[in-house]
Write a structure and sequence with these properties.
The chain is an alpha/beta fold. It has a single domain (2-252), classed as Rossmann fold (3-Layer(aba) Sandwich), CATH 3.40.50. 33% of the residues lie in helices and 17% in strands. It is built from eight helices and ten strands. The protein has helices spanning 9-25, 40-51, 79-91, 108-121, 158-164, 184-187, 203-211, 244-252, and strands at 2-6, 29-33, 60-64, 66-68, 98-99, 127-130, 152-155, 178-181, 192-197, 229-234. The protein has a seven-stranded parallel β-sheet with strand order 1-10-9-6-2-3-5, sandwiched between helices. It has a three-stranded antiparallel β-sheet with strand order 4-8-7. The protein is globular and about 55 Å long. The protein binds fructose -6-phosphate (F6R). Fructose -6-phosphate is lined by residues 34-38, 65-66, 79, 131-133, 137-140.
């Protein structure tokens, strides 16, 4: 696991956008997209680069990590809609380029299987962006999730409902209680994972993810099993990392040809 401590989220977004631009230059790439506040700075930076011709978007395809169940597709907080506004429109991607699980499917279990199959049929995700919940979740794999899980229906932790109520006018009862989420096993199949975290509210979860034991109590700790995980955090989110000096020294000594 590589840990990169950056000054602030803009510096982090720049670094992550560089990695995406390099992939996109190869002609075709499959991204895994997270929603929420964390990746917004990356999406802003990608939009800037697409606008100024520094990002070739022609070969980009993407899969969403998760979706609420029961929300109309055009609800402003549905992840399909969020990604349409933040990524699809601004990068000028075609309607078929970005796919997500259908939270309105009549048979959610079949939909989950179909979604995993469609990711596999694409050749798999090259680069998966991840945020982390304050309870250590990735996707919506809440504490206790199987580390081998596949895309499936999950019930949100009340703490996550409370965190996400800010996208529902602050009203917790409006937040759907169930989601379709890629499983931890599904996420771990992506070729490169980039987990980002900004701010002190994520500091304990980041420390548990990077330096704690691998346990389903902290679903993000499963990333320690992946051969190519990059954790990009700002100073505040890094504040509980015991080995922060080592991470800084390692990154500073990295050969310039070796990128994240
Ligand atoms: C969103 C997702 C979640 C978020 C996490 C952090 O697609 O899968 O795991 O990444 O809840 O959310 P923010 O970034 O809003 O703090």
């Amino acid at each position: 696991m590589e840990v990169v401590i950056v000054e602030d989220r803009c510096a982090g977004a720049d670094l992550v956008a560089d990695a995406i631009c390099r992939l996109a230059m190869k002609g075709s790439c499959v991204l895994g997209l997270a929603t929420g506040s964390t990746p917004e700075a990356v999406y802003d930076e990608l939009a800037r680069r697409a606008f100024t011709g520094r990002l070739d978007t022609s070969g980009i395809k993407a899969f969403l990590l998760d979706e609420y169940t029961g929300l109309p597709a055009d609800h402003e907080a549905s992840f399909t809609e969020v990604i349409r506004r933040q990524v699809v429109e601004r990068l000028g991607l075609g309607p078929e380029a970005v796919l997500g699980p259908n939270g309105l499917a009549s048979d959610l279990e079949s939909e989950a299987k179909r979604y995993d199959a469609s990711i596999a049929a694409s050749g798999g995700v090259d680069l998966q962006l991840l945020g982390i919940g304050s309870d250590g979740h990735i996707g919506f794999n809440e504490p206790g999730s199987s580390l081998g899980s596949r895309t499936r229906i999950k019930t949100l932790n009340p703490a996550t409902v409370s965190d996400n109520s800010r996208f529902f006018e602050g009203v917790e009862s409006r937040v759907p209680k169930h989601v379709l989420t890629q499983g931890i096993g599904t996420i771990l199949e992506a070729r490169h994972l980039i987990l980002m975290a900004w701010g002190k509210a994520k500091a304990h979860a980041v420390a548990a993810c990077v330096e704690g034991p691998i346990t389903s109590m902290v679903p993000a700790s499963a990333l320690q099993l992946h051969p190519h995980t990059t954790v990009v955090v700002d100073e505040a989110a890094a504040q509980h990392l015991r080995l922060s000096d080592l991470y800084r020294a390692t990154y500073a000594a990295k050969p310039s040809w070796q990128r994240i």
